[in-house]
């Protein structure tokens, strides 16, 4: 999952910073306990989701998993439902989109629903509108919706950021000495409005602001705020009787605030944390010594804006959870066939290493299922509940009402025209003012032409990528790829798996077959999943609480907790060894999982349980901070007074050098070796509990528990599947593709761990050539400050772990989970 990471910074009161950014337990005793398995009687939250897969395959190979998705599309009869976090237009996604378009071409009654994540996919909005506009039969047969649309509180924030305080600017006669109060009165109109009504009330500036935010376009944000407060800046500069005169330096500082705000939300890791720190420091210094400027600054930033209940608007959970993702991965055809797991829609998930994908090739796990009637109905119902959850799901038409992306195209055009026509000796502020004037003039012609042009560009990209997949991937054969058509790999009309000799070189197990296998469909959603509340989707749930997971929609983590305990109970009942295996690309366990792991390793509670973890190393992951946090957690668990210093606990990491050598030896021509090559990274989300197994999209880390939607399947009794999956680990260990790495996380104290962290950070800086980049030449001090604050965050993890393991029972919300939910 290539996603952006937002750092938490407790050392400088980062809760305050986030306001700016939209920001069953066992009883320990001295003797072995005999515990009844909680899954001996299926709990209600699972019972209602039980079904049977008439035929199923656990798919480890990327090409095979992509071939099965294409097979599902080609063989669908009436409808397809898809939901993905990432749907990026590249070679494989173009081929998948082509299959969808061919499907609707041949059947005018065929319908496609595609739900994608708003945060990740908004920037490509016109690609999805281009898809909707492909109407070979003269009617719309493909509909795309976006998860986590901006709520009313977010709209209010956008309005606040883009309106000035001059009376006629916001419809209030006369001028008041307090800008924030004036804005508050104006924005109170939103308190009684439903979301569609609020969208209809939005100003143009607020719409551009949201478009700039979701497209990660700082120029859009700056134009929106300038449009809104340009008049107010002039008033502040000229009217000294109401507020102090603003110098050019002060104006520049206000502009920098906006840039910092944007960078803190969307920059790379180093840029984000630096911007957050600077915003926090600015907040600390807005005290008595700068009181004369408070009114002016309140024009720009909502320090005191109140919500409907008189609480600060920026503590509204809709803003605090604005970056919640739709992290589902699912394709469902006709309530008959489905595939889910860890793979998004992009080259990195659907290819072997090749010259088209230069960064990561993800190692993942999907499940293809031929469903019984009950299973099809269950998955369709859960999909439609999410699809129709208009509180959080937007159509492309509704996005046009609250975040019209066409204005960003207009801003881009105005900026280019300004570069060519505005005087060259202007200051940055004057250049932006010149571009703003051109933008206002261009607005008279509207955005329709630019939108149509952009959609045509997406259409051309689609054609280019489609041809590239055929020419540069399908038609290419190497020693690790001896096929040129996907039907050669997977064809459900001719016995499903067609090529048993397919090899990904990492291990020999590419597909594990299942027949008439009982399963449970599990999911995380933003609403209550108890039977009595099911279908009552009015109230969105935020975060989660221990022992209240189902009420908060977090079925997957509740399942994990129960399954951990069931594995222990089984080992005690049978007095035989039981293995719990966590195979996860991103391993930084929540407080609940930490507690369950700690119990498994307690020799008085679960003496026959072995816990194994297989995860990314710092060298193989695309989300390095997760490894640093997870290592802090494991370092504390491995202390001498804890139970993890035992052979019953094993910890493996993927070996970067061996994975690179696999790529060089088996996937690329030797002539390509000197070029930049794609590297393997683990993306799988699997946990084995004895003979039970979970496969899905949820990571064993904080976001998957506190924020994102997820889905998966749980099989309670699958010894053959588990044995086949374990064979993968045996081969990985034998080839040294994974290596025992407990010694890398077993430190005597935090001081020793810090020394290793410093070595790893230095290696990362060298790996990404940070010290050689010209852009970093004048930012060494900022980078060093960022690194110190990151270490401070890691120290907070250690403190939180100590507090957590002192608890005899978890209840309610977790401070540890809340601390790290934004990573």
TrEMBL record:
Residues in PLD phosphodiesterase domain copies: 322-349, 678-704
SMART domains assigned to the protein according to its UniProt record, in alphabetical order: PLDc (SM00155)
InterPro entries to which the protein is assigned, alphabetical: PLD-like_dom, PLipase_D/transphosphatidylase
Superkingdom field: Bacteria
SUPFAM superfamilies from the UniProt entry: Phospholipase D/nuclease
Record's signal peptide: none
Pfam family, one: PLDc_2
Name of this chain's protein: Phospholipase D-like domain-containing protein
Organism field: Aequorivita marisscotiae
């Amino acid at each position: 999952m290539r996603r952006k990471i937002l750092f938490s910074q407790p050392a400088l009161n980062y809760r305050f910073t986030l306001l700016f950014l939209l920001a069953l337990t066992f009883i320990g005793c001295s003797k072995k306990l005999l515990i009844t398995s909680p899954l001996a009687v299926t709990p209600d939250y699972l019972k209602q989701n039980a079904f049977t897969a008439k035929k199923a395959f656990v798919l480890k190979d990327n090409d095979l998993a992509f071939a099965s998705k294409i097979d599902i599309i080609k063989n669908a009869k009436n409808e397809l439902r898809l939901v993905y976090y990432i749907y990026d237009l590249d070679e494989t996604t173009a081929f998948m989109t082509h299959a969808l378009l061919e499907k609707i071409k041949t059947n005018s009654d065929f319908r496609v629903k595609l739900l994608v994540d708003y945060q990740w996919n908004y920037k490509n909005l016109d690609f999805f509108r281009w898809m909707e506009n492909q109407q070979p039969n003269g009617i719309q047969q493909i509909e795309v919706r976006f998860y986590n649309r901006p709520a009313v509180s977010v709209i209010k924030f956008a309005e606040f950021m883009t309106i000035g305080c001059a009376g006629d600017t916001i419809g209030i006669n006369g001028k008041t000495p307090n800008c924030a109060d004036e804005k508050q009165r104006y924005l109170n109109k939103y308190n009684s409005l439903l979301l569609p009504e609020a969208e209809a009330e939005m100003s143009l500036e607020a719409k551009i602001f949201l478009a700039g935010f979701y497209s990660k376009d700082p120029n859009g944000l700056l134009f929106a705020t300038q449009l809104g407060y340009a008049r107010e800046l002039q008033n502040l500069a000229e009217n000294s009787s109401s507020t102090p005169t603003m110098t050019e330096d002060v104006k520049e500082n206000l502009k920098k605030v906006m840039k910092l705000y944007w960078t803190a939300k969307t920059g790379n890791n180093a840029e984000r944390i630096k911007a957050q720190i600077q915003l926090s420091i600015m907040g600390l210094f807005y005290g008595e010594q700068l009181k004369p400027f408070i009114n002016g600054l309140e024009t720009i930033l909502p320090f005191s804006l109140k919500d409907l209940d008189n609480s600060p608007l920026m503590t509204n959970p809709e803003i605090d959870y604005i970056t919640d993702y739709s992290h589902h991965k699912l394709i469902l055809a006709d309530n008959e066939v489905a595939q889910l797991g860890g793979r998004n829609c992009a080259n990195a998930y659907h290819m072997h290493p090749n010259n088209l994908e230069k960064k990561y090739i993800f190692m993942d796990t999907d499940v293809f299922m031929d469903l019984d009637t009950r299973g099809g109905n269950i998955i369709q119902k859960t999909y439609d509940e999410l699809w129709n959850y208009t509180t959080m799901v937007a159509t492309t038409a509704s996005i046009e009402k609250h975040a019209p992306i066409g204005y960003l195209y207009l801003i881009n055009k105005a900026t280019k025209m300004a570069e060519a026509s505005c005087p060259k000796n202007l200051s940055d502020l004057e250049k932006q003012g010149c571009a703003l004037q051109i933008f206002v003039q261009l607005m008279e012609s509207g955005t329709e032409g630019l939108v149509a042009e952009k959609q045509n560009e997406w259409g051309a990209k689609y054609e280019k990528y489609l041809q590239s997949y055929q020419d540069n991937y399908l038609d290419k054969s190497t020693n690790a790829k001896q096929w040129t058509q996907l039907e050669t790999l997977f064809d459900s009309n001719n016995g499903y798996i067609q090529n048993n000799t397919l090899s990904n070189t990492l291990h020999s197990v590419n597909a594990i077959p299942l027949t008439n296998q009982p399963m449970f469909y599990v999911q995380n959603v933003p609403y209550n999943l108890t039977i009595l509340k099911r279908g009552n989707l009015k109230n969105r749930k935020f975060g989660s609480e221990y022992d209240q997971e189902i009420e908060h929609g977090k079925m997957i983590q509740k399942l994990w907790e129960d399954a951990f305990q069931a594995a222990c109970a089984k080992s005690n009942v049978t007095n035989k060894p039981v293995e719990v295996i966590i195979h996860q690309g991103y391993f930084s366990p929540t407080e609940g999982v930490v507690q369950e792991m700690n119990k498994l390793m307690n020799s008085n509670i679960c003496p026959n349980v072995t816990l194994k973890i297989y995860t990314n190393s710092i060298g193989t992951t695309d989300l390095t901070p997760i490894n640093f946090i997870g290592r802090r957690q494991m370092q504390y668990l491995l202390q001498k007074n804890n139970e993890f210093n035992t052979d019953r606990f094993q910890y493996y990491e993927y070996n970067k050098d061996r994975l690179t050598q696999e790529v060089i030896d088996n996937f690329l021509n030797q002539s390509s070796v000197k070029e930049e090559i794609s590297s393997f990274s683990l993306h799988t989300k699997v946990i084995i509990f004895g003979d039970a197994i979970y496969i899905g999209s949820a990571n064993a880390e904080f976001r998957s528990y506190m924020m994102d939607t997820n889905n998966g399947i749980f099989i309670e009794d699958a010894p053959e599947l588990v044995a086949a999956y374990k064979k993968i680990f045996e081969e990985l260990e034998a080839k040294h593709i994974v290596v025992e790495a407990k010694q890398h996380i077993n430190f005597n104290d935090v001081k020793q761990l810090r020394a290793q962290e410093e070595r790893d950070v230095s290696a990362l800086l060298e790996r990404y050539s940070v010290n050689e980049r010209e852009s970093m030449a004048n930012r060494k001090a900022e980078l060093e400050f960022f690194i110190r604050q990151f270490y401070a965050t890691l120290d907070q993890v250690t403190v939180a772990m100590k507090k957590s393991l002192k608890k005899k029972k978890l209840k309610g919300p977790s401070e540890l989970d809340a601390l790290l939910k934004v990573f």
